[in-house]
């Protein structure tokens, strides 16, 4: 036994001196049974690198598929080309288009509220159409591997009008800038013209969250049957050619501060304030059933399921971060017969729709991945895990707004460091499914929260 131990120590010492390398290929980057020579990405805002409420050139360069593909190069992967935005701050869609249709990326800065209190807060800048479209001007379109289009639902993949210039029967400017033949081509036709060896996809996110971010107002979530049909339309042709890939599931909306930061019962009243509100409400037949008490109260919300159309909010309902906060703080928005508009709230019936849709979509994604032989990056439990707190490379991350390190300042899209962590979950799934050895990314060049 001693001689064996001496032998092991002797060999280990030689390795330290001579720089021995393990002969097993398992210790080296390897594609396993996959082929990364021509990777394309399909999806929406998360796959495009959208963050801080906008798309920017650096966000694209540190997007999920770009980070994954950079690691795949170590396993004989090819270059990952993107149609990059013009240099500058970038541009995104304003959740309040009546103010301006476009905004620049939010940054952390000092902001004074309606009460005159100055504090650190996300600061966004409204952009004119001309300025925004300057940033969104197409770069070199001769090569493109990233076909992710922010806010495009799967039903949009066959929509020719999505490729028209902004304003011409089209309010989404993001496909036009990469379309091979704007006004004629579609996302579907463009990706079908590709001949990929591997596909990175995250489909269904925008179908779900287009509904959630608008409070379910004047929009619906495509049915599970429609979602499955569109998945087949987009991905089945690749499966038939034997092309491999990875798909991702959809996380719970409750993980995102965009839906949870403004509490449903944050109307904290004194007895005198409650009495005054009760006096006002008692004079209006549409509101006379609503009563307030001292302490925390639910805000008043529009609910078409109620006979009067209005009621107090209750536990399990949500207010989106797009709500006019100053109006809530100083002008009794949500209290003084100025109800929370449906576009800023997720009431019980809408929460049920969201929960069921996410459940149905995830079941279909997992089923289709098995059918296609794709890997699955299961983002639903992963985002739950991040919400509770994770540690990566000695740094703590969670879903807390501004301070959590994972999310950007729009409280929904990750920042570049968050995208790097998500990219590693994709890499883990790919390695496990295909016996590959792709190293994880550390994304040292990725930005977190930026200050003004």
Describe what this molecule looks like in 3D.
The structure is a single chain. By secondary structure, the protein is an alpha+beta fold. Helix content is 33%, strand content 13%. It has two domains: 39-146 and 188-253 and 348-434, Rossmann fold, CATH 3.40.50.1110; 267-346, no CATH class. It contains 14 helices and 17 strands. The protein has a four-stranded parallel beta sheet with strand order 1-7-8-15, with helices on both faces. A three-stranded antiparallel beta sheet has the order 2-3-6. The longest helix has 25 residues, at 348-372. The radius of gyration is 25 Å and the shape is globular. The model is unreliable at 1-26 (pLDDT under 50).
Q: How are the secondary structure elements laid out?
A:
Blueprint: H1 2-18, E1 39-43, H2 45-48, H3 57-61, H4 64-72, E2 92-93, E3 102-103, E4 107-112, E5 118-123, E6 126-127, H5 129-135, H6 187-192, E7 198-202, H7 205-213, H8 224-240, E8 244-248, H9 257-260, E9 267-269, H10 271-281, E10 295-297, E11 300-302, E12 310-312, E13 318-319, H11 325-330, E14 345-346, H12 348-372, E15 375-377, H13 379-388, E16 390-392, E17 395-397, H14 416-434
Parallel strand pairs: 1-7, 7-8, 8-15
Antiparallel strand pairs: 2-3, 3-6, 4-5, 9-10, 11-12, 13-14, 16-17
Helix pairs in contact: 4-14, 8-12
């Amino acid at each position: 036994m001693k001689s064996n131990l001496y032998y092991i120590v002797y060999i280990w010492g030689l390795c330290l001196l001579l720089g021995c390398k393990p002969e097993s290929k398992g210790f080296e980057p390897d594609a396993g049974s996959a082929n990364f020579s021509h990777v394309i990405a399909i999806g929406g805002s998360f796959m495009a690198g959208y963050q801080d409420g906008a798309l920017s050139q650096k966000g694209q360069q540190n997007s999920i598929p770009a980070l994954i593909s950079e690691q795949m190069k170590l396993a004989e992967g090819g270059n990952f080309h993107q149609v990059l935005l013009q240099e500058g701050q970038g541009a995104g869609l304003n959740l309040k288009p009546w103010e301006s249709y476009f905004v620049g990326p939010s940054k952390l800065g000092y902001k004074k509220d309606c009460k005159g209190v100055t504090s650190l807060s996300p600061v966004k800048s409204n952009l004119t159409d001309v300025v925004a479209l300057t940033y969104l001007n197409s770069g070199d379109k001769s090569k493109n591997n990233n076909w992710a289009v922010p806010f495009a639902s799967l039903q949009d993949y066959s929509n020719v009008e999505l490729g028209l210039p902004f304003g011409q029967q089209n309010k989404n400017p993001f496909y036009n800038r990469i379309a091979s033949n704007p006004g004629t081509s579609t996302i579907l036709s463009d990706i079908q013209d590709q001949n990929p060896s591997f596909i990175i996809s995250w489909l269904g996110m925008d179908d779900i969250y287009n509904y959630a971010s608008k409070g379910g107002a004047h929009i619906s979530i495509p049915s599970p049957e429609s979602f499955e049909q569109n998945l087949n339309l987009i991905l089945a042709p690749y499966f038939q050619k034997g092309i491999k890939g990875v798909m991702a599931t959809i996380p719970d909306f409750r993980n995102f501060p965009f839906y949870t930061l403004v509490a449903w019962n944050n109307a904290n009243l004194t007895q005198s304030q409650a009495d005054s509100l009760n006096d006002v409400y008692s004079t209006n037949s549409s509101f006379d059933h609503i009563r307030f008490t001292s302490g925390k109260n639910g805000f008043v919300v529009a609910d078409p399921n109620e006979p009067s159309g209005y009621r107090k909010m209750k536990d399990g309902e949500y207010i989106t971060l797009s709500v006019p906060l100053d109006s809530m703080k100083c002008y009794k928005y949500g209290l003084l017969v100025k109800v929370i508009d449906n576009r800023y709230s997720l009431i019980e019936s809408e929460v049920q729709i969201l929960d069921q849709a996410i459940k149905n979509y995830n079941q279909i994604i997992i089923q289709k991945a098995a059918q296609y032989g794709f890997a699955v990056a299961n983002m639903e439990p992963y985002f739950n895990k991040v919400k509770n707190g994770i540690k990566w490379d000695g740094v703590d991350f969670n879903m807390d707004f501004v301070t959590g390190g994972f999310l950007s300042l729009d409280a929904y899209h990750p920042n570049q460091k968050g995208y790097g962590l998500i990219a590693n979950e994709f890499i883990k799934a790919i390695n496990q499914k295909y016996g590959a050895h792709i190293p994880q990314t550390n994304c040292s060049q990725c930005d977190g929260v930026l200050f003004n």
